[in-house]
Amino acid sequence: MNTKHHLLVVDENPYVVDILVQTLSKDFKITVASTGQEAARLLIQGNRFDCVLTELDLAFFSGLELTKLIRMSRLASQTPVVILSNAPDSATRIECLEQGVDAFLSKPFNPLEVKAKLHALLRRADSPIEEPQRRLVSMTEQSENKPFWLQKSRIFSMLFGSYLLPQSA
């Protein structure tokens, strides 16, 4: 892996943030947001992250609200979200999973477990099966200022081109 994955860490506790940054900075490029509003602003401004690691219980804008924002975003909807929390009850976990949370880690956490969970999620996100979808999103971004017919033909050929090629006998 030539480039580091970009991770957004969202937690109001500076001690937790310090532990996460110390543990993860060797393997990841890290951006820190100390509030849910700050994290939302970074996402709305178009910053791209490969994974979001957030506390569930943030004041004013929770980790669940942040997850909902990510899932509604055209560009970030497939971004893995990991929730850190003081062991929420089953109902809270179910609600979070229904809203698109990919994984939970309980506080206090083992920093090496956090690192392993992030690597596992990002391995899955980087799998070749996801590549056509990433190319489609990239193509759509690059085509926004081009005529609609050109956008449509490029996307159509990317999606169905391999099915339209003549088969060798």
UniProtKB/TrEMBL annotation:
<keyword id="KW-0597">Phosphoprotein</keyword>
<dbReference type="GO" id="GO:0000160">
    <property type="term" value="P:phosphorelay signal transduction system"/>
</dbReference>
<feature type="domain" description="Response regulatory">
    <location>
        <begin position="6"/>
        <end position="122"/>
    </location>
</feature>
<dbReference type="InterPro" id="IPR001789">
    <property type="entry name" value="Sig_transdc_resp-reg_receiver"/>
</dbReference>
<dbReference type="Pfam" id="PF00072">
    <property type="entry name" value="Response_reg"/>
</dbReference>
<dbReference type="InterPro" id="IPR011006">
    <property type="entry name" value="CheY-like_superfamily"/>
</dbReference>
<protein>
    <submittedName>
        <fullName>Response regulator transcription factor</fullName>
    </submittedName>
</protein>
<dbReference type="InterPro" id="IPR050595">
    <property type="entry name" value="Bact_response_regulator"/>
</dbReference>
